[in-house]
Design brief:
The protein has about 800 residues and is of the alpha+beta class. The chain is globular.
Length: about 800
């Protein structure tokens, strides 16, 4: 049975909150009086209706103008957010903030597309390109409006003394984004292989599906080092004002954060739905603690009717529904990167050996403008379009980073538009050919069809598996990408439901040896709990999806309880007694949940010390939770001569240590312990280390939360940083397919990142309470709930 106690208590708390936090802002006469502004870039008048919940509904006469409306509204609500991301990705931070950002700018510019931008644009579907041009024009129209009237600028600009950058459609092609992928995993495995300790890697990164390591022929593992990562290593290119960024330099925290982020989604066919219609639910798990990573919008024009949440700065709706189908997404783990070790010419380090010949690096000279200092010239090198991330001239060695994001046609920033313009399953799959990012795409349409399609560029590796760096002499080069048709998918499955939660979900019988996708996936705890619930519900309701999105049942906690020894020390006995009375729900008001969250880190630490070889500990900073629980359930000689006794001793010690920590943090009386007192949801500005920013942007805090990173209601944290919620579902969405006005959503903390707006934190109490709100879609419902009207009119000639 899904646990509902915390959910109901939180709902009651919402009712008791001050009315100012949950009021529905209304413009006087909002249903009938429209404000009108003239802007350059639109082609006809655009009507924007903002409903009582702050969702804007854009009604336009063309695709271009619908996306113009979205661009304008995103810039209205989140300009500083999208501007900083744009500056970072284009390598233009130093011109605003000075010399300390030069290294970051150089790294960003190395990952700008250097091919034929005009050819890339010409290859896009014309309607997709038209929408993108509209979005860019809308962003620029808002910037122009603020240039004319700076009083409306987000507060950060005045405090920091900077101005927003104008957008260019070409930048959507050039901006491919710097990311490490699994390059550090490849380096780590090579180093462990050189030490004869490769099997120890499975303690941190178990291979799924099961696989045997094979070192690429010709790779000198002993020569591989962290220096090969070069500019990929975040420690070499600080990119934030936030002192907490230093955590990103810790390999353990980097690894944990990488697999913490994910999502849940499930799709229910009419045969398993209480409504007789499909139900699609999705809650993407992203960072929590800053402005929301999603922004709500409804776009309507001839050939387009789509509503939901988009990523600020990315045209289109990522999760939501059209008038024909609902769509959701979770991360699908494709290995999309490889390190290639190049041999450079002894007397000419500008050349590398590839396919039997010495070839010259492609080079680009660039200039980085630096505030308060002279501009800096940088030379950027590539090998067949692959960025050179490090070079050691003395050793005749360079490292090229192959990433699908740098391939011709890898125009992810246009892919969401194509999905939004699709009409059915067939056209959606065609649109997916533009989609680079690894994704489980969920689909359910008004005709009762459901489908799951994995999408994203998966490189063909005919001679290696991507688990190690490979020699860059050409023998291990990629030979293209897998077509969408060859990626895992299903249409109208007999079971009547399917779900994804970042688990290894390659179907039985999929030829993964010939079509290598990945061997690194998230632990299956969230998926297993979702599947457990869905299997038990022959007729699933909208309310059931909402409850499941807020479910806090912990499968790792269940596994731990099964392992509690019968005989315990006096120090461990109280902890075991409290846990044995517990239902394994990580609820905000649970004392046992607080204790459990203290016990598990202690157990993991002791298990790590016992099982990870000392010679590997500098490379293996942590152990995988699922792997640890598997070994503890079936202990072997790695735990010692008497594995079962050693296991029991580890658990006993962890119980005692966890109890001691719980007393330290919660007080001496266990009856007063509450997990939510430690596990809080605090939202601060990313530049809050600046006193003026901190004063202008008051913290949104105080909210208590249940859950952790393994529960369906993902509220993850990093114990080294404290117990504050750091990632989870800031946006949640449940679609009643075909009866669209019954759909529900939440968005944390609100639509706007401007504290002067009533939409700055209006959803914070609703989100804490799990009080899902209606996502009005039909014209009648939108008009009935209109709170304000705005006309975006073309600028006068």
């Amino acid at each position: 049975m899904i646990q509902r106690r915390a959910f109901l208590l939180a709902s009651a708390a919402l009712v008791a909150m001050p009315g100012s936090l949950i009021a529905k802002p209304r413009v006087k006469g909002g249903k009938g009086v429209a404000r009108s502004i003239r802007l350059p870039g639109s082609r006809a008048a655009i009507e924007v209706i903002e409903d009582e919940l702050g969702v804007p509904h854009v009604r336009a006469a063309s695709l271009h103008d619908a996306f113009f409306g979205q661009g304008y509204l995103v810039a209205r609500d989140r300009l500083f957010q999208i501007d900083m991301e744009h500056r970072r990705d284009m390598g233009r931070m130093a011109e605003a903030f000075g010399p300390r950002f030069v290294a970051a700018d150089r790294g960003a510019r190395l990952f700008l597309y250097r091919g034929d931008v005009e050819a890339e644009l010409a290859a896009l579907p014309p309607d997709v390109l038209e929408c993108a041009r509209g979005y860019v024009a809308g962003v620029n129209a808002r910037i122009d409006e603020l240039v004319a009237d700076p009083a409306g600028l987000p507060l950060e600009y005045g405090i920091l003394g900077i101005s927003p950058l104008r957008w260019d459609i070409n930048d959507l092609v050039r901006n491919r984004g710097i990311g490490m992928g699994d390059a550090d995993d490849e380096v780590r495995r090579a180093q462990l292989q050189a030490r004869g300790l490769l099997e120890a890697d499975l303690l941190m990164a178990p291979l799924r599906p099961a696989w045997s390591f094979t070192v690429p022929a010709g790779l000198d593992c002993a020569a591989v080092s962290d220096a090969d990562l070069g500019i990929l290593d975040p420690a070499t290119r600080p990119t934030s004002f936030d002192p907490a960024q230093e955590a990103r330099f810790d390999p353990e925290q980097r690894w944990g954060d990488r697999f913490a982020l994910g999502s849940n989604a499930w799709t229910i066919a009419p045969s398993r739905s209480a409504t007789g219609r499909p139900i699609l639910a999705n809650d993407p798990h992203l960072g929590i603690g800053r402005a929301s990573p999603r922004h709500m919008c409804h776009l309507t024009a001839p050939g387009l009717d789509v509503i939901g949440a988009g990523a600020p700065g990315l045209p289109g709706i990522m999760q939501g529904h059209t008038d024909r189908f609902a769509f959701g997404r979770t991360n699908f783990h494709i290995d999309q990167t490889d390190l290639f070790i190049l041999r450079t010419k002894e007397d000419d380090p500008g050349r590398y050996w590839h396919k039997g010949a010495w070839r010259a690096f492609e080079t680009f000279e660039d200039e980085i403008v630096v505030k308060g200092a002279p501009s800096e010239r940088v030379t950027l090198r590539y090998a067949a379009g692959r960025p050179i991330v490090s070079q050691d001239v003395a050793r005749g060695r360079a490292v090229a980073f192959a990433t699908v994001s740098m391939l011709p046609g890898a125009n992810q920033r246009f892919a969401i538009i194509a999905i939004n313009l699709s009409k059915d399953w067939a056209s959606l799959r065609q649109a997916c050919k533009l989609h680079v990012s690894p994704t489980n795409l969920h689909y359910a349409d008004i005709d009762g069809n459901t489908g799951w399609q994995t999408i994203g560029f998966a490189p063909r590796r005919p001679k290696h598996d991507g688990l190690f760096p490979a020699p860059g002499d050409g023998d291990f080069d990629w030979t293209g990408i897998l077509p969408v048709e060859d990626m895992p998918h299903v249409y109208n499955p007999p079971a009547g439901w399917f779900a994804s939660a970042n688990q290894m979900n390659l179907p039985a019988g999929y030829p993964y040896r010939e079509r290598i996708i990945s061997f690194s996936w998230s632990d299956p705890f969230r998926y297993d709990r979702v599947a457990e619930v869905l299997r038990s519900q022959p007729k699933h309701r909208i309310e059931d999806s909402i409850a499941l999105q807020h479910d806090v049942q912990s499968l790792p906690a269940r596994a731990l309880l099964k392992l509690l020894p019968a005989s315990l020390s006096a120090e461990a006995a109280p902890a075991a007694a409290l846990l044995r009375r517990w239902d394994c729900g990580i609820e905000a008001d649970s004392a046992a949940a607080l204790l459990y969250e203290m016990v598990m880190p202690a157990l993991s630490s002791d298990f790590y010390d016992r099982i990870v070889p000392a010679a590997a500990r500098d490379l293996i900073p942590s152990v995988n939770l699922s792997e640890m629980l598997r070994i503890l359930a079936s202990p072997d000689k790695r735990l010692g001569e008497n594995p079962a006794a050693a296991r029991d001793a580890l658990i006993d010690a962890a119980l005692a240590a966890g109890w001691k920590k719980a007393v330290e943090l919660g007080g001496p009386d266990p009856a007063r312990w509450r997990w939510g007192d430690l596990h809080r949801v605090n939202i601060t500005h990313p530049l809050s280390s600046n006193p003026a920013i901190a004063a202008a942007f008051p913290k949104i805090d105080g909210g208590r939360s249940g859950g952790d990173g393994t529960t369906p209601m993902a509220r993850g944290f990093n114990a080294k940083r404290g117990f504050q919620v750091s990632h989870g579902a800031s946006y949640l969405f449940v679609a009643d397919v075909g009866a669209w006005d019954n759909s529900r959503f939440l968005l944390l903390p609100g639509q706007s990142a401007d504290p002067r707006s009533p939409r700055y934190r209006d959803f914070y109490p609703r989100w804490l309470a799990g009080a899902m709100q209606p996502l009005w879609f039909s014209e009648a419902a939108v008009d009935r709930h209109a709170a304000a009207r705005l006309i975006l009119a073309p600028a006068a000639d």
